[in-house]
Each structure stands twice: as C-alpha cells, then as structure tokens.
Specification:
This protein has about 270 residues and is an alpha/beta fold. The protein is built from eight helices and nine strands. The relative contact order is 0.14.
Length: about 270
Amino acid sequence: MKCGYVAVLGLPNAGKSSLVNRLVGEEVAIVSKRIQTTRNNILGICNGKNFQIVFIDTPGIHHSKNKLDRFMMKNVRNAITTADVILYLVDSGKIVSDEEKDYIKMLKSKAEKVIVVLTKSDKKAVADVSGDISISVKENKNLDKLINLIVEKLPTGDAIFDEDEYTDKSIKFLVCEHIRGRLLDILDNEIPHGIAVVCEKLEEKEIVKMDILIILEKERHKGIVIGKGGKNLKEIGISARKYAENLFGKKVNIQLLVKVDENWRNNNISEYGY
Ligand SMILES: Nc1nc2c(ncn2[C@@H]2O[C@H](COP(=O)(O)OP(=O)(O)OP(=O)(O)O)[C@@H](O)[C@H]2O)c(=O)[nH]1
Ligand SMILES: [Mg+2]
C-alpha cells in the first residue's frame, strides 16, 4: 500500500484548506475568503483502495509580525520536515511575485517530492508560473489526476491511521474553529485576524456542555461581535450547536462568552491553544 504525509503549502488564500476538505470528504479545516484563515497544521486523511494520504493543511506562508505569525510559520516548517510529498499551491488568478517564484524554485531544487499545483483554474489565468497540474475545487477539475500524481510519489508501507479516522483534531478544536469560521464570515472587514476561540470547559454526560470563550483585541469589537440585541452571538451559537451535535452524536449545550485581551497575539498565544 502507498502511504505517507503530504504537506499542502502556499500563500494565504491559495485554496489549501478547500482542497484538503474536498479530498478528505469532511470539513477538517475552516475556509474563508480572508487571508490567514488556517493557524495550525491540521491532518486530513484520505483513504483509497491502495493508498492512504495524510494531508497536512498548513497556515499560508507570510512574513511574521507577531508571536502568532511565528507560531504559524513554525507549523509550516514542521510540515515540510514531516512530509513525504509537498504540494505547493498557487492561485492561478493572482499575479505571482518574484519572491514567490524564488521560493518555488528553491523548493523544486531541493527534492523530487514537490508538486506545484495551480489552483482555481475556473478563474481567469494570471499566474505566470508553470505548474505540474492545474485544478479547480469549485468545478471538481483534475482532482483524481492530482491524487494519482501524489500516490506515485508516496512510499510503500502500512496505513498510518485507522480507516475511520479523518483528522488528528479533537471535536473540541473543530467546534472552536467552526465558531472562528462563522465569525470570519459575518464580521467582514471589521475585525480581521484578532480573534481566538477556546473551549474552557467540556463536560460530556447524556448532554454535552461546552463553555467557549471568544477572545477579541479591542473593547469596541465586543459590540460588533455580539451584534444588535445579541443577534450575531445567537446565530453563531445555533450554528455551533448543530455542528457539535452532529460530531458528538448527542445533544449539546454551548455557552458563548466574549473577552477582551489586547495584544494577545504577542503575549498570550499559548493560553489560547497556539
Ligand atoms: N473560484 C474558486 N475559488 C476557490 C477554489 N478553491 C478555493 N477557493 C476559494 O478561495 C478562498 C480561500 O480558500 P481557503 O481554502 O480558505 O484558502 P487557504 O489557502 O486555506 O487560506 P489560508 O488558510 O488563509 O492560508 C475561499 O474563498 C475559497 O472558497 C476554486 O477552485 N475556485
Ligand atoms: Mg487554510
């Protein structure tokens, strides 16, 4: 059997998480139109007849401005070290900078294990780099071909994970990420990257009880997040409960709390799970 780790790298917004979710067939990572959505490496497992691909979805590569950024880039370096195969994703609808071209060259010169993937082929092509394959998650284009390219490069060995596993992340993590994803959706440009979501208490009996904390950087963000008459928080709570009930397979009660912690991205990242 062909098995191994496949790191999925690229700039923020290149389409990494969308691809991993599609090939895994589950939502293991949140997706948004914003940059720097993914913050941790997330494993997504794709089982086939004669293969097991363990994708490592990574944060988008960017210049670090704070501790959280540095944590994210450390995740990327770890993924590169672990990987048997590296997918480097380039958004075909975007102009490629010289810096990115140099990075791709450097990756390619290092190993045979790199596959350059042009993503979003449904968009007008602008990127002037040659890829090994061009795909569209939106239109389901060339995804089988990509799997074949990956499997060719994987080592032979035993499966790494049980067939019924599809991620390394806990339900707790997935629920918090779901909430962060919903916040990214509804908050638009008002509060970009300053949000963290952590589960402070999880009690699993006949009913699951979760106390979940939403951390913001500014006092004035509180009202925006909570919404008029608590509208946003209520909506997010309902969405999170449904999502969690599906994963736990039982009734879930979620208590959402909002807290301000200025500059947490430089001080307290470990408190919030980073
Ligand atoms: N048109 C088009 N849009 C896509 C496609 N794949 C992903 N997108 C969109 O691209 C945006 C970014 O997708 P993500 O999967 O979150 O990108 P990412 O590389 O994981 O981003 P970060 O986590 O921020 O690094 C989202 O709005 C997706 O819906 C595609 O095949 N076609
Ligand atoms: Mg992502």
